[in-house]
Amino acid sequence: MSEGPPFCELKEAERMEALGIVSEAQELSQSLADRRSTMIDSNPPFFAAYGSLFRSRPAAGNHEAEAVEECDLPIVDLSRLSDELQAEQCKREIVTAASAWGFFQIVNHGIPNGVLDRLRAEQVRAFRQPFKKKADEKFLGFLGDSYRWGAPTATSLKQLSWLEAYHIPLSSATHPATTSTCRCVIEELSSAMSRLADRLMGILAEGLGSDGSYIKDNCKRNTCYLRLNRYPPCPVAGEVFGLVPHTDSDFLTVLCQDDVIGLQLKKGGRWIAVRPNPGTLIINVGDLFQAWSNGLYKSVEHRVMSNPRLERFSVAYFVCPSKETMIESSARPAIYRKFSFGEYRQQVQQDVTLLGYKVGLTRFLASCSLKKLQILDLGHCKKLRKLPAQIHKLVNLKILRLAYCTQLERLVNLLVLEIEGCPRLQSLHDSFSDMENLTELKMMRCDSLTGMPRGVGKLSDLQKVAGWAAVDGHGSATFQYLQTLINLEELRLQNLKSMSDPEDDPTAKLHETVDDDVEMAFLLLQILEGLRPNPTLEKLEISCATTTLSL
């Protein structure tokens, strides 16, 4: 039988054409025809599983369009730790790199190249298995469902990772179900990486004035993880990440990558590409170390770019504590509150599921450290159901934009409040009338509001008021409240259908509905007459079902 390209990849090319990705599909087909390799159907069916994301993708959004410069990470030679004269300087370089970069490279790390080479060979062999076999079987008898690919919670291409991986909990390494070569080399490498990680964490803890015993006692090898990664060639590399931007949820990560460039990290607000450096390992600080160091060591956002032609392999060792381990900095004031690793992982998973991305340490701030923040725009956070309690500590907040939010409490210094698309917002908090400095109030598409918020008449500094569907979902406005706003300069009411009395029962059926042009004209005259005493009003716009009035 003649050799040919993998059947699943041929099917993927057909699906790409059906999704309108024509030129890339032709390139993939040609590439497969050129290769005619013996590789079996091992690649995950990305296009079959995520076809809806490709069909709904925007015209733009190419990640490659960003200007990215290449860099060499700081390199630390660990052999100097054995030299009395150089050991202290070497430790200082490690602490400096963790503080300034959050990433650094190490050489002479003590892990034999032969072990790394053997694992790479076994890694390639494992990923060459048929996709169905990888997805259905436990890898080498390790506990848990170690094989994973793509991103099950992705709702857009920017949340999709073009990646397959074996995420191996090392807690199962002490209960071998098989003595395969791959398992043996995994255990050999993880033991070596555990010793290396202990050494580095001790140095970093020493840089904080600690002996590091707490981390060492709680980060045993059986609570850590080893991940074998493969990034398949991606025909739509400009649209999909190999691994989406993220930070690591551990203390420390030890990474061994191949010679295919792909890793990028964010520094100074810009993405920079990390040049592969043979013989080195990459170390990066995780979220737990950032919290434990009170922000001295940086857990830096990083990502992996997909490649249209080349596959990429890497191995990562994640230093994690037990779920019960409490994370707390001894520094005061502490930036982050005390939390357990289990609580942190649960919150991360919840955010990824609900929001599509990881929020991370921001969820665990001890107190609001953004005291100078003046503008907070949450207008696109449509899945946000509740405001963080810490928002009320933003004493200098001047402008707040919300969407799909159910609670709003006292923000005494707020000047501008925009509420857009909050279908569950039935009323503003009782302390709304205490926002006495408010000058702008915009309520757009708040279909559950039963009328102009009670207490609005006390906001004497209000200069601009706007409401869609006339400030409630039924086209009714409580006009009497507006008459008390003596400093009002702009009033916009859209889709006005009726006027209601502030004494009306808010649950009662709305009445005095305007049915024709004559009644609407009469209603507009009433509004004009009612606003006549207001000397500051400069702009009035009222849109009705049949007419629009602008002055």
Automatic annotation (TrEMBL):
Gene3D superfamilies assigned: B-lactam Antibiotic, Isopenicillin N Synthase, Chain, Ribonuclease Inhibitor
Coiled coil: none
Organismal lineage: Eukaryota, Viridiplantae, Streptophyta, Embryophyta, Tracheophyta
Source organism, top-level taxon: Eukaryota
A single BP term in Gene Ontology: gibberellin catabolic process
Molecular function in Gene Ontology: gibberellin 2-beta-dioxygenase activity; metal ion binding
Protein's organism: Musa acuminata subsp. malaccensis (Wild banana)
Named cofactor requirement(s): L-ascorbate
Protein name per Swiss-Prot or TrEMBL: Fe2OG dioxygenase domain-containing protein
Keywords: Iron, Metal-binding, Oxidoreductase
